[in-house]
Amino acid sequence: MLDLGKYIIFSLLSIFFSISSFSETRKFNIGKIATKQEVAGWDIDIRPDGLGAPKGSGDALSGEEVYAERCASCHGDFGEGIDRWPELVGGSGTLSSHDPVKTTGSYWPYASTIYDYVYRSMPFGEAQSLTYDETYKIVAYLLNMNDIIDEDFILSNENIGKIKMPNRNGFLLPDPRPDVKNLNGNPCMKNCNTPTKIIGKARDIDVTPEDEKS
Fold first, then answer.
1. How far is CA 110 from CA 121, 141, 154, 162, 165, in A?
2. Is 183 helix (H, G, I), strand (E, B) or coil?
3. Which DSSP letter does residue 58 get?
4. What is the maximal distance between C-alpha atoms in the chain?
């Protein structure tokens, strides 16, 4: 037992001095400097203006085949959605209704962020298994199915940030909440006497019980 105890103490001291020696070169005393390759593996975000989009291209005609193989089992052959999987096509003019249909055509404000999401998260269970070109093809197919681009349009890193989406300005409307409403261009910080009206929409979307006594 004594020998084992000495061994454990010696091992802990060795680890402590190793960490202490390493910490002299590290500002926060933890981790290691990431390599360029490691950083590149995480740096996959794409801005709305297309900055960060990887080099590649694709069109809707070739995208139809990729979509059918990698996406249709959940989202349907034509983006209509299967079971509880979301619809990807249609929904035009429904966002202000009681039953909005949020698709890549009706809801998404930027084509570049569609690419970002598809490449980052799809297919379900196989995230980031698509190549750059396969992702461009799928996005081109979705845009074409939503009548945003022609089927022979070559979508690429050079133009994905320039696509005019139907709901591009849908996220730029003034915030309607009274507590954040701007007054004369500046947010109210104190003594804000803005009118408050309580409204109920739960019943409109059928999530409120019909029994008035419940």
1. 17, 15, 17, 9, 6
2. strand
3. E
4. 79
What single-letter amino acid sits at 99? D
Token pair for 28: 């926060």
- Alpha-carbon distances of 126 from 7, 53, 57, 94, 122, rounded to whole Å: 46, 20, 21, 31, 6
What percent of the chain clears pLDDT 90, i.e. is strictly above it? 59
The model's pTM is 0.70
Residues 6+ apart with CB under 8 A from 62: 137
Given a contact cutoff of 8 angstroms between Cβ atoms, the answer to whether 167 and 106 are in contact is: yes
Q: Look at residue 1 in the predicted model and tell me its pLDDT.
A: 47
CA atoms within 13 A on the CB side of 135: 27
The better pLDDT of the pair 25, 148 is held by 148
In the chain, where the domains are located: 2-34, 57-162
* pLDDT tens digits, 157-210: 999 999 999 999 888 766 655 556 554 566 667 777 666 676 666 656 565 566
CA–CA separation, 188 and 180 (whole Å): 7
Domain 57-162: give its CATH architecture: Orthogonal Bundle (1.10)
User: SS3 for 82?
Assistant: coil
How far is 40 from 213, CA to CA, in rounded Å? 58
